[in-house]
Amino acid sequence: MASGIGIGVCLTFVALLVVGTYSAAASLMKGGRQGSVGLVKGAVPAIYQPLVEKWGNLCPALNPAMLAAQLYTESNWKPDALSNADARGIAQFIPETWATYGVDGDGDGDRDIWDPKDAIPSAASYDCQLAKDVAKVAGDPSDNMLAAYNAGPYRVIKAGGVPPITETQGYVKAIRSLEKSFAQPLGRVSPSQQAAGAVYFAQKQLGTPYLWGGDGTAADNGRFDCSGLTKAAYESVGVELPRVANDQYNAGSHPSRAELLPGDLVFFSDDLTNSREIRHVGLYVGGGYMINAPYTGAVIRFDKIDTPDYFGATRVTKEGAEALPERSQAAPKA
């Protein structure tokens, strides 16, 4: 896109941003997110979704989105994950815990800690056993269950609820926040508080050459790749996103295509059943367009979002971003 045209279109989208963000926000604020049912399409890898849906409903304190948040936090959906503490598999059981709580989820006659068909049912069974252990404790049953998962049921019973342990309180808050990223919203998703500033930052980068792995630093000559641009845009308004696009997907709830607002992150993938395969991200600006850093040889520009590889969107929140587990720096998804 020529720079002159880009500037003109930029001014058009400034107007879209102001009108679209605030008028839509006013209407959405009247009926924000009221809860969730089921799982957002693609949020859980398709190979595991039936297991999460089935076993996530094992007891009233658990739901599929909550179970998904735990599995994502524990292993990033990797069935061969192995921690320094010898926690194993997709549910990160240590062998001693597995010996007591592991179940034969697929009925094949064995309990395999590495097999998701056993490990996911075992994670749900373990959660629900903890929920029973703390069932008489006052407070939210799900919060108490998660606290027991982190700190043990004795501490929850002794404290009469989530104990005043920083790690435990952080774990409960993180899982309940991440739960929203895996849950299918019942109503409209509340508008973002930081959207306008993020789009303003991205607009200032229009025309900048793309750089794979670019973070916009002096060493990069101010250049970005796709996830580097979205990360920097939200960092400019005090929200710290992960570096990789498919992890940025989990930084909030997921509005439908019809409910997009300026500032939403929009994602693209060749596999529309698995958020872990997301390969591109942009910042929605209204009118069916996004600002994005597309590929080597191009510049940061406006592009349409309605393409066959459109995966979905995320309405970023500070709380959602803070809930994301820390990951080692992987190669940028650009």
Question: What key attributes describe this structure?
Answer:
six-stranded antiparallel sheet, disordered N terminus, 40% helix, alpha+beta, 8 strands
Portion of residues in beta strands equals: 5-15%
The helix/strand class is alpha+beta
Strand order of the largest sheet: 3-8-4-5-6-7
Number of E-state strands: 8
Helices and strands, in order, run as: HEHHHHHHHEHHHEEEEEEH
> Roughly what is the average pLDDT, rounded to an integer?
88
Helical content class: 40-55%
Summarize the structure.
This protein has helices at 3-28, 49-55, 64-75, 95-101, 116-133, 141-151, 153-159, 166-182, 195-204, 226-235, 245-248, 318-323; strands spanning 36-39, 183-185, 252-253, 265-269, 278-286, 289-292, 301-304, 310-316. It has 334 residues and is α+β, with helices and mostly antiparallel strands. β4 (265-269) and β5 form a beta hairpin.
How would you describe this protein?
- With 334 residues, the chain is of the alpha+beta class.
- 40% of the residues lie in helices and 11% in strands.
- It contains twelve helices and eight strands.
- Strands 3-8-4-5-6-7 form a six-stranded antiparallel β-sheet. The chain has a two-stranded antiparallel sheet with strand order 1-2.
- β5 and β6 form a beta hairpin.
- The radius of gyration is 21 Å and the shape is elongated.
Helix and strand layout, with pairings?
Elements lengths: L2 H26 L7 E4 L9 H7 L8 H12 L19 H7 L14 H18 L7 H11 L1 H7 L6 H17 E3 L9 H10 L21 H10 L9 H4 L3 E2 L11 E5 L8 E9 L2 E4 L8 E4 L5 E7 L1 H6 L11
Antiparallel strand pairs: 1-2, 3-8, 4-5, 4-8, 5-6, 6-7
Helix pairs in contact: 1-9, 2-3, 3-8, 5-6, 6-7, 6-8, 9-10
